[in-house]
Structures are given as C-alpha cells and as structure tokens.
Amino acid sequence: MKNSDFLFIKLNAKNEFRTTASFEINGMRFSAVDVKIDTGCPHTSFPMLKLGISEESAYKLKEQDCKNDSIAKTISFGVNDTKVKRDEDKRKFKSKRFMELNSISFKHTAKDFSLGTLPLGDFPISVSYDRTGNTLIGMDILKKLVIYIGKNTCGETVLIACQQETKSFVAALSELIDIRKI
C-alpha cells in the first residue's frame, strides 16, 4: 500500500517492522535506506558505514565532527559492553579523546527526512562512524507520529502511522479496528 499520507508496514518473518528512509545529512543524499522501527531505542541512530560511505570517508567525517565544538557528542553502549569498557570510554570521553571511541555518536540533522513515502521534515539524529549495525528509527521520531499496530483483514500484523489523520489514513486504519466518524 503506497500512500504519502501515512506509513503502512507489515511485520516481517523476524518480527520486525522495517521500511525505507530517505534524507540528507551534511549535503549527502541517501535514498531508500533500509531502516528498522525500534520502540526500545530512545534516539534515531544512523551508522554511516551501513549507509555505504567508505571507511576512509567515515574516518574523515568523524575527525571533522570530533574537532567541531558546535556538534553535540554522546557515548552509548551496547548490551554486551562490560563495566570496564564503559568506565574506560567515559574517561576517554571526559578527556575529549573522541577519535579513540567507537561508542561515540554525533548529533546531526537529517533534512527532508521521509519514512517509506511519508515525508516528515527535518529531524535531529545520532550518527556514528565506526558502527555497522542496523539503522534504527527511535522514539525521538516515533513519538511525533500517531501509530497503530494490529491485524489487518488478512490476519497480518501491520503498523500504520501518520503525523495527522487524513481520510486515507482513517480508511486504512478501519481495516484494523472498527472506527466510525461521528
């Protein structure tokens, strides 16, 4: 189902909601990037290596971001990171040894951001240059959408989301739940 008023995604065999995203970061345009909807992720996270840039380009971009005091920097850890690694990374971060950190992310703006065919505008996102995991759409973006998850008439689990309800969104939603406008 293609519609620019709302997002419509079927749950895949791995119990994931995946779609594509298109956006611009620092003058680089990315189209039809595979993304995972992740309600357990507080911040949208884009691993630049996964987006197809070379390791050399990623290194140069990381170096630029590390030197730029106007770009917000954060560290985040994986579930398997040990307390020793976390403590060491925190020390490096406080010492501004950013280039030594694989756990560092940089705040950027994804311009002209869209999920599937749904245009959403500009959004702040976290960018990492060392990671190659999933491109995650987190709660920072999802909280701005009206989202319904349920079974459609074919028994498939689907996610329907929009920024503002439209007639086409309500019609699609009526396949999931019995809704009537009064």
Structural class: alpha+beta
| Termini separation | 26 Å
Mean pLDDT score: 90
- Helix fraction bin: 10-25%
Number of helices: 4
Major sheet: 7 strands, mixed
User: Low-confidence parts, pLDDT < 50 over ≥5 residues?
Assistant: none
CATH topology of the domain at 19-143: Cathepsin D, subunit A, domain 1
CATH class categorisation of the domain at 19-143: Mainly Beta
Assembly state of the chains shown: single chain
Assess the beta-strand content as a share of residues.
Answer: 35-45%
Radius of gyration: 19 Å
Q: What best-fitting shape do the alpha-carbon axes yield?
A: elongated
> How many beta-strand runs?
10
Order of helical and strand elements: EEEEHEHEEEHEEH
What is the second-level CATH architecture of the domain at 19-143?
Beta Barrel
Short description:
The chain is built from four helices and ten strands, in the order ββββαβαβββαββα. With 182 residues, the chain is of the alpha+beta class.
Keywords:
single chain; 182 residues; alpha+beta; Cathepsin D, subunit A, domain 1; 7-stranded mixed beta sheet; 3-stranded antiparallel beta sheet; 4 helices; 10 strands; 20% helix
Please characterize this protein's 3D structure:
- This protein is α+β, with helices and mostly antiparallel strands.
- The chain has a domain at 19-143: Beta Barrel (Cathepsin D, subunit A, domain 1).
- The chain has four helices and ten strands; from the N terminus they run ββββαβαβββαββα.
- It has helices spanning 55-67, 83-94, 139-142, 167-173, and strands spanning 7-10, 18-25, 28-37, 45-47, 73-75, 104-115, 118-128, 136-137, 146-151, 157-162.
- The strands form two sheets. Strands 2, 3, 4, 5, 6, 7 and 8 form a seven-stranded mixed β-sheet that branches. Strands 1-10-9 form a three-stranded antiparallel β-sheet, with helices on one face.
- A hairpin with a 5-residue loop joins strand 9 and strand 10.
- The longest helix has 13 residues, at 55-67.
- The model has no long low-confidence stretch (mean pLDDT 90).
